[in-house]
Amino acid sequence: MLTKRKGSTFPITIHTMEAELKFHLSDKNTGQELFDMVCRTIGLREHWYFDIEFQDRDHYRFWLKRNKKVIDQLSAGKSSQPVQLTHIHCSFLVKFYPEDVSEELIQDITQHLFFLQVKQDIVSEHIYCAPEASVLLASYAVQAKFGDYDDKTFIPGSLQIESLLPQTVIDQYQMTSEMWEERIKIWYADHKGLSREDAEKEFLKIAQDLEMFGYCYFHIKNARNSDVSLGVNSLGLHIFKPENKLVPVVSFAWSEISHIAHTDKKFKVKTLERNHSDDLTFFSRDLQVNNSMFELCQGNHLLYKQRRIPDTLEVQQMKAQAKEQRINRQQEKARLHKEQELRSILEHEKEVMVTRINQLELELELTRENLRRSEETVELLGQKSDLIEQENQLLREKSAEAEAEMGRVKNTAIKTEEEKLVVEQRAKDAELLASRILEDSEQRAQEMERLIQELEKAKEAELIAKKKLTSMANLYPQLSGATDAEIDYLTTDMTQLKLAVEQENLTFMERSESIQAQLKNLKSDMDMLKVEDKLTHLDRLHDENVQRGDTKYQTLQKTASGSTKSRVAFFEEL
Question: How many CA atoms lie within 13 A of 224 on its CB side?
């Protein structure tokens, strides 16, 4: 037991799902005072869902009583082993669950604590989750932690699979960590644009449909001394067979229960039926947990009734504040989305213009190269033209000499007929040579004219390319400035925002159906790698439910059907 000294203090560590809080308490501090300290420290106002859990000296776990001193509760128990004042640890946990997490959880911190605890309960297998649903939930958890998926910055192997999936799920398939990561990554990439709060909400909306979500189980006996399990949740009391915690055999809604009382191990649940024989009676198997079971039943019953009366002023203020924050987040999200779209458009235009500038620079370089070659060709042609001109001059001189020779020959007497023929042949050859020289001269003149025209065209192309490059260069700095400049946006119109919210609500069912279809595809894909010998008892029970087409809420509706009297009789006959 604890050694008490008047006015003494002792340290205590409270473990929330994301932090450790250290306090110093006096021997007079009550559970309520410690609870208030924790709520103030983390900024929690929806305190009715949570409580502080501790372990006594007999290693039983209990909820801290608010109206009793903390030090007295820590020293409770039959064990003679003293409690170490320097090693007192308690946990701040969810005690009661809402009926609908998306409608009832108001504060972001409340939703965040629920998300962390449910995620931990799934990974640690306190809540059963089918393999394909585990992958989907893991993807939302990754989105909540890391934000949007980016293929450029994503590091393969960065996802810690053991902290995202239950170990039994990992063991059931012949899949490496890389294969699990790839399947999670496919879903993760689809969640782009979801904020941390939205990703956590989607996670909880899916998780609340799991069969074991929100239940706290206790071992009890009926009047025939048969062992059964009692599941307490936000909707009522549910009786399970010991080997099956997924599907209750009979249920009693809080709406048909007036109050609950217990004496030692005997619990009596009074129904709204006038006949007291219709009351539900059962017995706990462990006297140590009676108070915890009674508190959970009583607390869930009270919250069930409170949800069906008008909200208190405090809750109304919290909802109004949360609504305002949600609208502000949606406006900010819309503004950022619009800014990202505009920036993406500007960056795309910039890339297009940069590509066009590079093309124009390449064209200009090619034009310059062609111009240089044309200038070299013109220069060579000029030199060649000079040579041709010189050759033509020589040919003209030779032609003149030939004509003079012909005149001289004609004026000279021809002595023999043979000489006359020779002279005539030479005259023909001279005339043919002169004709060829003239044709060659004309062809070279035409070639020079063509090259001069090509040179003019090359100069014009260079001028056009220079003008285009100058025009694009003038536009480019303006584009850069527009990309980096601050962009002012008009405040999102409230009517449009409301329409967007309504549209989200309308498409929720479609998204839900799409998710179910994707889950079926994922399941069929993973079934090829399943190791049948690794299936657990809960896996087989879940598969039977799926084959029957039963959902969690359909099952609860069936088990709560019929009169209260008939269901009480059914329970007593188990």
Answer: 10
Contact 219, 286 (CB under 8 A): yes
Q: DSSP for 281-329?
A: EEEES-GGGHHHHHHHHHHHHHHHHHTTSPPPHHHHHHHHHHHHHHHHH
Q: What is the dihedral of CA 466, 468, 470, 472, to 10 degrees?
A: -150
Q: What is the CA 66 to chain-centroid distance, rounded?
A: 41
Tokens matching residue 493: 């119109």
Task: Look at residues 99, 147, 144, 97 and name the one whose alpha carbon lies nearest to residue 121.
Answer: 97
Contact of 465 with 364, CB cutoff 8 Å: yes
530 vs 537: CA distance, rounded Å: 15
d(CA 185, CA 191): 10
- Name residue 503's amino acid: Q
The answer to whether 278 touches 271, Cβ cutoff 8 Å, is yes
Instruction: Give the residue from 250, 271, 251 showing the smallest Cα distance to 259.
Output: 271
CA dist list (Å): 563 to 202, 235, 276, 558: 36, 17, 14, 12
Cβ atoms of residues 333 and 147 within 8 Å: no
Q: What is the pLDDT along the chain (574 residues), one digit of tens a residue?
A: 445 555 578 899 999 999 999 999 998 999 999 999 999 999 999 999 999 998 877 777 889 999 999 988 887 665 556 556 667 899 999 999 999 999 999 999 999 999 999 999 999 999 999 999 999 999 999 999 999 999 888 999 889 999 999 999 999 999 999 999 999 999 999 999 899 999 999 999 999 999 999 999 999 999 899 999 999 999 999 999 999 999 999 999 999 999 999 888 899 999 987 777 778 999 998 777 888 899 999 999 999 999 999 999 999 999 999 989 889 888 888 888 888 889 889 989 999 999 988 888 888 888 888 878 877 877 787 787 778 778 778 877 777 777 777 777 666 655 556 666 766 777 677 667 667 766 766 776 676 677 667 667 766 766 775 666 566 556 545 444 444 444 343 344 445 544 554 555 455 456 666 677 777 777 777 878 888 888 999 999 999 998 888 889 999 999 999 999 999 999 999 8
Q: Which amino acid is present at 182?
A: E
Question: Which own/partner contact pairs does 550-554 have at CB distance under 8 Å and 24+ positions apart?
Answer: 550/247, 551/209, 552/209, 552/210, 552/211, 552/213, 553/209
Measured N-to-C along each axis, helices 108-123 and 196-207 cross at an angle, to the nearest 10 degrees, of: 50
By the 8 A CB rule, do 164 and 181 touch?
A: no
Task: Tell me the C-alpha distance between 78 and 75, whole Å.
Answer: 9
Distance between CA atoms of 148 and 191, rounded to whole angstroms?
Answer: 7
Q: Report phi then psi at 229, rounded to 5.
A: -115, 140
Angstrom CA distances, 210 to 128, 170, 207, 514, stand at 7, 19, 5, 18
Cα separation of 485 and 123, whole Å? 46
d(CA 168, CA 460): 76
pTM of the model: 0.74
